[in-house]
Amino acid sequence: MRLLLKCLRLGRRRRFKLVWQAEQLWHYGHLCLRSLLYNSFTNSDVVLDSLFEPIYWLVDHVTRWFGVVFVALVIGLTSSIVAIVYICLLPLILQTYTPAWICWHLAYGHWNLIMIVFHYYKAITTSPGHPPQAKNDLTGVSICRKCIAPKPARTHHCSICNRCVLKMDHHCPWLNNCVGHYNHRYFFSFCLFMTMGCIYCSISGWEMFRDAYAAIERMKLLEKERLQVAANQTYYQTPPPTFSFHQRAFHKSVVYLWVLCSSVALALGALTLWHAALITRGETSIERHINRKERQRLQKKGKVFRNPYSYGGWDNWKVFLGVDVPRHWLTRVLLPSPHLPHGTGLSWDLPPCVTQQRTPLLAI
Questions:
Q1: What is the DSSP letter of 150?
Q2: Can you state the angle between helices 53-84 and 245-281, rounded to 10 degrees?
Q3: pLDDT for residue 360 is more than 60
Q4: Domain extent for 59
Q5: In the chain, helix, strand, coil percent, each to 5?
Q6: Which of 120, 118, 119, 144 is nearest to 131 (CA)?
Q7: Distant-in-sequence, close-in-space partners of 234: CB < 8 Å, separation ≥ 6
Q8: Pairwise CA distance, residues 245 & 248, whole Å
């Protein structure tokens, strides 16, 4: 009897606990709903951001953990292309091309490869730059709502790295790193030289690709004929010749090289052109959206928006690439160079390479 009463009391306690938890969840949901309508600044964008917050959290964490996989994928695919070129294509070039063309392919191919490896290594190992956490005398800064620390102009918070990044452009999963003030040039140079390398491989290997594709089609036909002969074989029938493993591997490697390089050239080339347009305007990917909204807002008031960080197309490129004197086009652009960008990313003074003065504006 006592055991029965004890079980009934435990059942009542559990029911009360479940009811209490349900009431707490109801009050919490009600509070969240009221918080969305707390003030007049709430609009449809805020509501959508709040509803999609779990999705954003999932994407951020997946990108963070899969960054290493993406870097390994880039290294693996690039290494496979380089191996195919050295094992399959280079002996063929040395046997069939003229000495002038051989010198051209050896010089350009190795220069392009060195530029790709150097800039990718620097892009993934160089910190994009972070603002100091301590309070100092920085002017024109705001406070990051997530870091609760000073946030200089052009600085934005990366939800994947969970830190503020100086002159942040975006978080690149293929680098497993943010693209910011100190590694933006390395990222763009890697995209540019990788696109140039893929275009070079696609154009140079076009004839080889056509021959290899035709050979693979002949392989399929001969394999089909061989199977038919094997099914109806008589003593006077001879099976068709078969391709060796080396021939099959060679032709399939050439097709793989051309398809991969052509696909990467199209996709990465479009991304490179997009970033080249942003650099010409003196913007980052994030500032592109911010400036567009600001341009529309001022246009309604009859005013003209001007980007305070743009010095003109040509000067923007010189500032971005760090070209101060003419010889820097060779030593800093066409050759590997670890030189630092202009400024510290905390303030944006006029670089020495800019030829035309600008009207000073307050950066907010």
A1: E
A2: 130
A3: no
A4: 53-334
A5: 65, 5, 35
A6: 144
A7: none
A8: 5
pLDDT at 257: 95
pLDDT value at 250 more than 50: yes
The predicted model gives 202-214 an average pLDDT of 90
Residue 351 has pLDDT above 70, yes or no: yes
Residue 348 falls inside a structural domain: no
Q: Which residues 6+ apart lie within 8 Å of 306 measured at CB?
A: 361
126: Cβ contacts below 8 Å, ≥ 6 apart: 177, 182, 183, 186
> Quick check: is 300 in a domain?
yes
**What does the pLDDT read at residue 64?**
72
Number of C-beta neighbours around residue 24 at 10 A: 10
Give the β-pairing of 170-172 and 177-179: antiparallel
Point out the residues that are catalytic.
Answer: 172
Distance CA 268, CA 1 (A): 78
Long-range contacts of 60-68 (CB under 8 A, 24+ apart): 60/159, 60/160, 63/160, 63/171, 63/173, 64/160, 64/161, 66/173, 67/173, 67/175, 67/176, 67/177, 68/176
Task: Average the pLDDT over each of 172-186, 209-223, 285-299 and give the range with the smallest value.
Answer: 209-223
How many domains would you assign to the chain? 1
